[in-house]
Amino acid sequence: MRILYAATDQVVPGNLGGSVHVQAVAEGLARLGHDVHVAVRLAGRAPSGHGVVWHPMAPPWASARLRLLCTGALVRLARDVQPDVVIERYHNFGGEGVLAATRLQVPLVLEVNAPVIDYPRSAKQILDRALVVEPMRRWRDWQCRRADLFVTPMAQILPPWVPARKVLEIEWGADTERFTPDVAGPAPFARRPGQITLVFAGAFRPWHGAVHVVRALRTLRASGQNDFTAVMIGAGPELPRVRAEAEGLDNVLFAGSVPHDRMPAWLAASDVGVAPFEVEAHGQLRLGFYWSPLKVFEYMAAGLPVVAPDIDRLRHIVRHDREGLLYDPGHADSLAEALKQLADPGRRLALGSAARARVEVEFSWTAHCGRLDGALRQLVREAGRGRCES
How far apart are CA 259 and CA 250, in angstroms? Predict the structure, then answer.
């Protein structure tokens, strides 16, 4: 099957979740025998060795809000490629893949990783309604009505009128061949005997909750738990605040941004993966925890017990006291209390081993692409039957 994948606002290769997701899906589908062409913003040399054809295509000034201006270039690419199906990575200001699929009259898949619908009282919703005819909602609705299949972590972020038969709910995953508990080579940071290393990896935005890792570490130190240390990986607007919170605490390493291909070694050298999401800090999460958390899957693949807040969907991914520990995000000391329970190396090993076993079966990119492959093949078969009948 020939697939055209439109993700013109994503940078490949890259360290952010969207970049990793696009590359993993493209390469996973290629391994399953598909001829995959991807339109992305290329950062230097295109990834090689996995059978994907990467086409450099970026909106003007690299602005996702100008993605629609890529329509002409994408339609020309589609006419050259002649795909059996077009996948567009949905964006509020996108639609170039939708238009290309419409002009070529081929099936369209919308990959939806952020809400199509507006959360109550959002600035976008207020502005759209102020324009009377709601042009943004109408454009989004048109894209969704054109789609033959939706691929999303959570159906509730789609318009309520989308038929359930058109929705494939599927989690993201981890590269379980690269992220393992026993990555070869020296640890990328110094460790001392008996040290328990907490790792946080993220973009340091308010809703990632990195500050809670440092606060929990300070609470642990105050209670006499001096073996806990922290490695904070990433950069972003919250980093100065987190650094300030860590002032006076020893053994807190701020690693900065780490290339994704080096992340397996950093996780394998750690003991506990922490994902302290703060849902109240992000308005869109009023619709529910719609993220498919890449960091959690990669922690699990590295054999780390995961500590995360006890909220919907995370309970499905990390089962309490089976692959990790879930804490009450409304209680100030509950994260520290959960971490304290992992001072026992035997418990860390048992939870981490279970996490690794589960991610191999359910939350790998191989599993993700296997389910997606089945849905795409069925979609193209049905489209072929429809053309024959007409």
Answer: 25
Beta strands in 191-268 (DSSP E): 196-201, 228-233, 252-256
Burial of 246 (0-12, 13-18, 19+ CB in 10 A): buried
β-pairing, 167-169 vs 196-201, is unpaired
- Among 24-33, 46-55, 340-349, whose mean pLDDT is lowest? 46-55
Q: How many CB atoms within 10 Å of residue 260?
A: 20
**For the whole model, what pTM was predicted?**
0.94
Q: At residue 51, does pLDDT exceed 70?
A: yes
Which class for 287: exposed (0-12), middle (13-18), buried (19 or more C-beta within 10 A)?
A: middle
Backbone torsions φ then ψ of 161, nearest 5 degrees: -85, -5
Tokens in use for 198?
């907490």
In the chain the domains, ranked by start, together with CATH numbers, are 2-171+364-389 (3.40.50.2000), 196-362 (3.40.50.2000)
The pLDDT score that the predictor gives to residue 124 is 73
Phi–psi pair at 319, nearest 5 degrees: -85, 130
pLDDT band at residue 122, thresholds of 50, 70 and 90? confident
pLDDT band, residue 11 (cuts 50/70/90): very high
Q: Across all residues in the chain, what is the average pLDDT?
A: 93
Structure tokens at 275: 């994902």
* Residue 248, both tokens: 């006076």
